[in-house]
Amino acid sequence: MISTFTAFFDANVFYGARLRSLVVELAQTKLFRARWSEHIQDEWIRNLLRNRPELSVATLERTRRSMDTSVLDCLVTGYAGLIETLALPDPDDRHVLAAAIIGRASCIVTFNLTHFPSDYLGSFNLHAVHPDDFLLDTESLDPTVFADAIVSDFRHYLNPPLSFADYVASLAKAGVPKAAAEIEKLEVLLKP
After folding, report:
1. Nearest to 130 by CA among 165, 178, 167, 94
2. DSSP assignment, residue 60?
3. 67-110: pLDDT as tens digits
4. What domains lie within the chain, and their CATH numbers?
5. pTM of the entire structure?
6. How many Cα atoms occupy the beta-carbon half-sphere of 19 within 13 Å?
7. What span, in angstroms and rounded, lies between the C-alpha atoms of 107 and 130?
8. Which residue in 128, 139, 136, 119 sits closest to 176, CA to CA?
């Protein structure tokens, strides 16, 4: 069963590798429909390369392709004509709202809540939600499926090995401390 609840992800959610990996893993559970655009992909890659020039463009492009192929129907297109008609505090964020509208999203998941005023988004039947709250909401939909996704995501980090404590700490550092505290409780599932 595929959820009809659709979340559009802002580029800042994909900036950090650990959070990006977790969101993609959760999107594959079908607890929600994950949507983003080529513009979103370009933005997080551009910002990451600007701040971390030692990273490989080829590696990030592989990550992008993997995201786009591993999440069914994730890419939103056909929203360019709507951008100019929208009014947000930061005009550079209009592409996010336009794609969310065309993608029939229920929410925009972003760290920049002030960039997406609730009254204005409400006129499009949308709301903005912080990634920390989004993860907790996702867990509440089906705690078992959520836990399985966490375990699956954590197991990606075998080479080089990553401790579960470091995994949790990296999520907290990525800006989702409440979700990290809940995820920390799942370490018991990793015991043999």
Report:
1. 178
2. H
3. 999 999 999 999 999 999 999 999 999 999 999 999 999 999 99
4. 6-130 (3.40.50), 136-190 (no CATH)
5. 0.94
6. 28
7. 10
8. 136
